[in-house]
Amino acid sequence: MSEIIIKKVETKKEMKAFIRFNYELYKDSPYAVPDFLEDTMDTFDREKNPAFEFCDADWFLAYRDGKIVGRVVAIINSRANDTWQTKNVRFGWIDFVDDAEVSRLLIQTVEQWGQERGMTHIVGPMGFTDMDPEGMLFEGFDYMGNMSTIYNYPYYNTHMEQMGFKEEAVWVERQIKVPQKGETGEFDKFLRVSQLVERRYGFRLRKFKSKKEIYKGDYVKKIFHIINVAYKDLYGYSEMTERQVDVLAKTYLQYLDLRFLSIVENKEGEPIAVGICMGSVSEAIRKAKAKLLPFGWYHMIKGLFFNKSNTLDMLLYGTLPEYRDTGCVSLIVADAMKVAQDMEYKLADVMPQLDTNVKGQATWKSFDNVISKRRHAWAKKI
User: Fold this and answer.
1) What is the pLDDT of residue 184?
2) Which domains does the chain possess?
3) Residue 108: its pLDDT value, please?
4) Which residue among 33, 88, 241, 274 is least enclosed by CB atoms within 10 Å?
5) pLDDT of residue 303
6) pLDDT digit string (tens) for 185-240?
7) Whole-prediction pTM value?
8) What pLDDT was estimated at residue 329?
């Protein structure tokens, strides 16, 4: 068999090839949603991505006979390492053909890169921060992926086990049947509970009519303050900087349907919890072949505003720790489900939650739901 060559990415052309390898590897899969070229180019841009203020990274491609057969990013998040008192090198955006030598050389390259910089352990797949996709899909290969998570073939996990990796963390995802109008049952009880919580604590659900209103009230910073505080104890989390918040807001707020942005305020008017949902654009990205230009924007606009999916992506939820036992998140979920009913969504996909997050998992017990996917972070000493 021909020799496998590992090459560091050094040119813009090679970077585009790095990103497009994911599309080529999964173009025949009915479930994979490939990396979006333009967004991923921005994520990998040292000038545009504020995470590079505290992250170091290099990109590597595996070639056989001049053809790309694998890819990986080596990452050190110094802020996360300082927070968690670790010396971890992360591997992210990893993809490879079903060849143990390819995956071994990719991981070996990341290990050596990390050792040269004083790291003692390798973990992944993880991105620069928690706002990037993380966790290798372990179960649920026959469910549609989405733009916020990783899809991979089952053989990836076999390769990781063969290389001596052990499970470091587990995330679960749930698929919920959106309660339809006229249906009675557990959702009615959930609505009544949310109303009781609202009255008991004097909470208020804040909605927005325009993006101008969000910026005028400085709600972007308030939202991400909640996320930073709510997520600070989660596996591998590193606090987002003000510049990261600005970039995330500019990138994603333009796509957001404000009916699916909700904030809970306490009786003093202070934000204490936030929830953000978005109609799935998985099929739109697939039709656009994961490129915005020259015509991908057309499929994205159609998917967002006209020929929408029947699935809602429940992207992000966060509650200040001192309010977690109040049930305030029920106001957000109840509102999201009522809006989803009005918009005739049939399903809702809950984004990854750590399996140790018992309170978060309990939120969905009042709904007809299944655990649709499980994903692992793998780790080992180097």
Assistant:
1) 62
2) 4-171 (3.40.630.30), 176-373 (3.40.630.30)
3) 98
4) 241
5) 52
6) 778 888 899 999 999 999 999 999 998 899 888 898 999 899 999 998 888 888 88
7) 0.90
8) 93
For residue 298, the model assigns a pLDDT of: 44
Positions of the chain with pLDDT under 70: 1, 184, 288-308
d(CA 234, CA 61): 31
Q: Which residue has the tokens 């973990």?
A: 123
